[in-house]
Structures are given as C-alpha cells and as structure tokens.
Amino acid sequence: xxxxxxxxxxxxxxxxxxxxxxxxxxxxxxxxxxxxxxxxxxxxxxxxxxxxxxxxxxxxxxxxxxxxxxxxxxxxxxxxxxxxxxxxxxxxxxxxxxxxxxxxxxxxxxxxxxxxxxxxxxxxxxxxxxxxxxxxxxxxxxxxxxxxxxxxxxxxxxxxxxxxxxxxxxxxxx
Length: 174
Fold this sequence. Notes:
By secondary structure, this protein is an all-alpha fold. It has one domain (2-170). It is built from 4 helices and no strands.
C-alpha cells in the first residue's frame, strides 16, 4: 500500500512539474488510448459477429451475379470498411498533435527560463532549471505517448486493411 501511495505521489509531482501542457498531453493520450482500445474490441469481438450476419444475408440472396446485386455487395463492403476505419483518423490526428503539444510545453518552459534570466540574471540556476525541466518533461511526454500510439495505430490500420479484403472475399460471386 505504501509503494502505491509513493507511486501516486511521484506521478502527481511529475504532472505538477510539467504544468498545464502536460495535463493536456495526458488528456489527449487518454483519449487516444480509449479510442485504440475501442477499435481493438470492435475488430476482435464485435466485427466477426457482424460479418457472419452479412455473409449469411448475402448467401440468402437468390441472385448474386447481376449488376444490381454487385452494387448491393459493394455497398456491404463499403459499409464494413467505414465501420472498421471509424476513429482511425482521430487516432492519427492525436498521434500527430501529441508531439506538437510537447513542443508547446518546450516553448513555454524556455519562456519561463528566459523570464527567470531576465529578472535574476544568470545567478538563479534553480529558477532556470525549473523552466528547463518543464521543457524536457513536456517534450518527453508528447513524444512518448505519440510513439506508443503510432505502433498500435499502424497495427490497427494493417488489420483493418486485411479485414476489408476478407469481407470482399467472403462476399464474392458464386
């Protein structure tokens, strides 16, 4: 219990030392991870059940070779492609925005450092270190969360591409 309290205290200190921008990075990364987890749940649990239903509907059709039937097939494929790609653009946008938020924190930390230098000169090393600390912590936070999200979003995009092809193959002409 004591180590949990200590870890929570360390996280609280880190967030306080990173300032407002680090809180924004935390919120953006929580949103990104929520969307990533939702996509994994959809692709691995919900989507397979929906595909079985669509395949059954397609095979119940008496006629599957006409132009009209192929348009229905294409509509089914497109509908599932849209469902599979949902939130991927938002996730990519967050991945791109996270390093920019880190850069915003870097600029804020450097401004804080220069403010200390303007008021106290080069004599207040502790004050300058605080601004540099904000700059480095926010940069690290933005880059770390973006890199972790980049790996999983790339994996998801590859999986989505395979699933769209699988849907198209499953709904082929007989």
